[in-house]
Amino acid sequence: MKASKVLKGLGVGMICCYCSFLAGCSQKTDSDMKTIGVLQYTEHAALDASYEGFIAALEDEGYVDGDNIHIEFKNAQGQNPTAQTIASQLVNSNVDLVFAIATPAAQAAYNATKDIPIVITAVTDPVESGLTKAWDVSGTNVTGTSDLTPVAKQMELIQELLPEAKTVGILYTTSEVNSEIQVALAEEAAAKLGLDIIKVGITSVNEIPNAIASVVDKVDVIYTPTDNLVSSSMPVVWNACLEKKIPVVTGEEGMAKKGGVATEGIDYFQLGYETGLMAAEVLEGKDPSTMPVKTLENTSLVVNQEHADAIGLTIPDSILERAEIVTSEE
């Protein structure tokens, strides 16, 4: 009888231990989770969409925040010193991977570490920016995607939209390498089309109204490349141009929604998604130095009819026939 009770007690104890063992196997501890440190340079539609696409791709690949990965998101609010500080903090906390969104964020991350894998997106030219040795094979701890916009197509769009236009004013931030690259491409493309360029460089959002006022009587259209400061300040740009009824052609769709009339550009959600797929490969052990920096081939033409109407601009049928009409987001 006593022996029977002892055996029963042992049996219950063994079952409990076994159940506890199984439970322990199924639960993930903090040490089991890989951490992705996210450094986004500033907040605007394109960068936000890139981040959303990145998260969607990770989830499709089985990486879910709070389940088997931990995502630590930081935003530098468009400040280079803040970006450098955040990058150092992420490196010091020994994250497993850094996801850097936009050229200044990527440069800050690369300055902070040459060891931790860095996956980038919304970087115009990773080679020119000093992040990789080549496009086809990174050669560094950096890989990811470029948002190099079809600048030549955007210059052609200006000519189709405004056949009588002679001079294009380009509004950009002088401290952003990505913008300098796009300005050079625009100058090259414009020259082939017989368009003159007036460069309008700024260093802060406060300079935008005066910068535009200084050229509105000299240009037929304002072009805004995918510049982070300008992108996050498109309502300011639009208000400055609206008074003089100057059309604004932008570098991407989110900018057109907030302050432009048209663009032909890439899908930033898809760009981020492609980056997320690459990040999953890195998490699984792939060496970023052996990976390329990818770009998107497909572009889409969009028109903001509301903004066009506001300045009395008639969009040619040749554009409307193939464009998507987008809604303003002021």
UniProtKB/TrEMBL annotation:
Any Pfam family the entry gives: ABC_sub_bind
InterPro entries: ABC_transpt-TYRBP-like, Peripla_BP_I
Source species of the chain: Turicibacter bilis
Lineage, top ranks: Bacteria, Bacillati, Bacillota, Erysipelotrichia, Erysipelotrichales
Record PANTHER family: ABC TRANSPORTER, SUBSTRATE-BINDING LIPOPROTEIN (PTHR35271:SF1), ABC TRANSPORTER, SUBSTRATE-BINDING LIPOPROTEIN-RELATED (PTHR35271)
UniProt-listed Gene3D superfamilies: 3.40.50.2300
Coiled coil: none
Name recorded for this polypeptide: ABC transporter substrate-binding protein
SUPFAM superfamilies: Periplasmic binding protein-like I (SSF53822)
